Automatic annotation (TrEMBL):
Belongs to the FliD family. Residues 280-303 are annotated as: Disordered. This is Flagellar hook-associated protein 2. Homopentamer.
Length: 452
């Protein structure tokens, strides 16, 4: 029709020109709203992480205990309830489960075709397993191997294990209690008569003393033997020997909690700084260079702000205000008069919190309760930060409202784009009809002119 284009092609070209302005506007709005939404979600994750660190100060950071044993005779585990102190441990004997065996020529050797085979565990009559040899194998004689399987798979097995030990020519049917201790000794009989098994290992309780107190246990694992302290016994002491179990404050755990808090705090403030500044990729490159140049920052949580997100929230004064209030809340003195600088937490040359580990360790060893008060007493650093972030982190708080608003704006842009697409499709059909009619008229005139 024109320059060799068809009516459809010409219509498409006109529509592309006509819709270009609104397409660009909608795309730009959609990209802006999505970028802001992603930024708020990023900040929300950082707030959640920082909130979790704050919560840990109240529940874990200053309440942990650690344990150590002076040798390898035992291991100790502790909870926060464990009292600090040193305990002298002497292990006289370990608990063990009884083992009985009986010799057979092979695992296929047949047992008596009748009689009641019974195993009694301890003294409780209810802890007894009985097997009627005349019925359990359909009237046929049972082999040693079959008896092993029947015992192990029996639904009424109260706590015993059968196994076969191959000695290189003979078979030993071994019966063992699954639990150690005198209370779990075994009695094996056939029709009420001793089955003739040999005791290879006797049932016995663990015997020990802790700070001179005599203790017996059916197990080598003594749970809560002292409030919050559990022991796993591994070997015995000789005459005059003993181990020392030491329970003390978990300063290392507290230091880790403090450093994790500092990292989370720095990450959040750095993200706010980047998201609210109208700068390009040089901000990320600058921060990355700082982290590489300062070896002490190697354990900091790395920023996750992307290059295209720099400055996306520059118009949000509430986020800037949040950043300012967070800084103010930790620069003031704690209720007990101490400051973060007193325990080795100060600002570095890049405006980030930095931990002097030596100073923090010395402060914890000097007066851990005073440091705990800084973070956990009424009006502490934890309380202040939680109060500052609460309007943002509450259910249906500021962060939820901001995200809901952006979700609504994105929905409206998508709806406008759908209406625009529909309108442009209608315009295309109008143009197509017009140019198709024009093309038909031109073809008719061309055909008519060829007659002259």
């Amino acid at each position: 029709m024109i320059s060799g284009m068809s009516a459809a092609q010409f219509s498409e070209q006109l529509i592309m020109v006509e819709r270009a302005g609104k397409d660009a506007l909608y795309k730009n709005n959609l990209n802006t709203y999505n970028a802001k939404l992603d930024a708020y979600k990023l900040l929300e994750k950082s707030m959640d992480k920082l909130t979790a660190k704050l919560t840990s100060f109240d529940t874990e950071a200053f309440k942990g205990k650690t344990s150590s044993v002076s040798d390898d005779k035992a291991t100790a585990t502790v909870t926060a309830d464990a009292p600090k102190g040193n305990y002298e441990l002497h292990i006289e004997q370990l608990a063990q489960a009884q083992q009985l065996t009986k010799t057979y020529a092979s695992e296929d050797e047949l047992l008596p075709a009748s009689g009641v085979f019974s195993i009694q565990l301890g003294s409780d009559p209810s802890q007894r397993l009985e097997i009627d040899l005349a019925t359990v194998n359909g009237g046929a004689s049972m082999t040693v191997a079959q008896l092993r399987d029947v015992i192990n798979k029996h639904p009424d097995n109260p706590g015993m294990q059968a196994s076969l030990v191959r000695t290189g020519g003979q078979i030993e049917l071994m019966m063992s209690a699954t639990e150690s201790g005198l209370a779990n000794s075994l009695t094996v009989e056939l029709d009420g008569v001793d089955f003739g098994m040999t005791e290879r290992r006797a049932a016995q309780d663990a015997k020990l003393t802790l700070n001179g107190i005599d203790i017996t246990s059916s197990s080598n694992y003594l749970e809560n033997v002292v409030d919050g302290v559990s022991l796993e016994l591994t070997s015995t002491h000789g005459a005059g020997e003993s181990s020392w179990v030491k329970i003390e404050e978990d300063f290392e755990g507290t230091e880790t909690a403090v450093k994790d808090f500092v990292a989370a705090f720095n990450t959040m403030l750095q993200q706010i700084n980047q998201l609210t500044r109208s700068m390009g990729s040089s901000v990320i490159e600058e921060d990355s260079k700082k982290d590489k140049d300062d070896k002490d920052d190697k354990d900091e949580v790395a920023t996750t702000v992307k290059e295209g997100q720099i400055g996306v929230l520059k118009g949000d004064s509430s986020i800037r205000q949040l950043q300012s209030q967070m800084r103010d809340s930790i620069f003031a003195s704690a209720p007990n008069g101490m400051r973060l600088s007193d325990i080795g937490i100060e600002l570095d040359r890049y405006g980030k919190l930095k931990v002097d580990e030596t100073k923090l360790t010395d402060a914890l060893k000097g007066d851990a309760s005073a440091i705990e008060a800084m973070f956990t007493d009424a009006g502490s650093y934890v309380d202040r930060l939680e109060k500052v972030m609460e309007p943002f982190t509450d259910f249906k708080g500021l962060m939820d409202l901001k995200k809901d608003t952006l979700d609504g704006q994105i929905d409206r842009v998508n709806e406008n784009m759908e209406r625009h697409d529909y309108h442009m499709q209608q315009r295309y059909q109008i143009y197509l009809a017009q140019f198709t009619a024009m093309e038909a008229t031109i073809n008719q005139l061309s055909a008519a002119s060829g007659l002259f």
